[in-house]
Amino acid sequence: MNTIEAVLIALLQGATELFPVSSLGHAVIVPSLLGWSLDQRAPSFLPFLVMLHLGTAVALLLYFWRDWLALLRGVLGLDSAHQVGESRRVLGLIVVATIPAVVLGFALEKFFRALFGSPLVAALFLALNGLLLLFGERIRAQGHRKLATLTVKDAVLIGFWQCTALIPGISRSGATIVGGLTRGIDHEGSAHFSFLIATPIILGATVLEVPKLLRAGIPSGVFSIAGLAAVVAGVTAFLSTAFLMRYFRRHDDWALNPFAYYCLAAGILSAAWLLAR
């Protein structure tokens, strides 16, 4: 992997990890469409992957630092009784919503990647992701519930929606936003909760790869490229988050529709191109 390819993949990761268009699906499809010969099992790819995830996670922590500081103060009991109770409740909801993806991801991620990881199948599921987003807009429950009003049942259901993103082509953020919409949260609130529960999942995925990283023989010069990619992915993720939070706040009536149409078009056209080659 050369520097240009690394930067382009970092840009792709930083944007698609947060946009409801599936980072995993794009990571499978785009290199194939561009004719890149990336070996994701190569020792040089592991530090690159770890650094991309780290950059994205740091971006989310920085953007939502006030939320995480409030949650920390709540855990330590440093705020008013009401604020402490609300912060602890929200933190509990984040933990509950994270559990299904952690459990199923640990048990089944390799299975899903092997079964659905081909570019053609990922393209078809990217189109399916578009249908999922359109479906979410149609079945959404009306309301503007606050995160602190969610129940454990709400968090569990949103967590199970998130598990659909184990399939390459299905967006994690898109699925969790749809899950939030079905529970009466608006687009902005659903995206907010989606990004909060994404942070421990992305950090967890990074930590799980560290032992493999320590055991692998890393070629010289890889970490410099991986470090550059992490910065690019982090900056892109931060800007993407800022854009999306403002976008979802301003377009609550139809916010997922443009992403749905993009996924449908990109998935169908990519599948057609891959079949025609």
Secondary-structure-derived class: mainly alpha
Rg calc: 19 Å
What is the overall number of helices? 11
Poorly predicted runs are none
Helix content: over 70%
Q: Please describe the biggest sheet, giving its number of strands, its sense, and whether it closes into a barrel.
A: none
What is the CA–CA distance across the termini?
Answer: 23 Å
The string of secondary-structure elements, in order, is HHHHHHHHHHH
Inertia-based shape: globular
What oligomeric assembly is this protein in?
single chain
Q: What share of residues are in beta strands?
A: under 5%
How many separate domains?
1
Give the mean pLDDT.
Answer: 87
Strand segment tally:
0
Architecture blueprint of SSEs:
Elements: H1 3-16, H2 23-34, H3 45-63, H4 65-76, H5 81-116, H6 119-139, H7 152-163, H8 172-182, H9 187-215, H10 222-250, H11 257-276
Helix pairs in contact: 1-2, 1-3, 1-10, 2-6, 3-9, 3-10, 4-5, 5-7, 5-9, 6-8, 6-11, 7-8, 8-9, 9-10
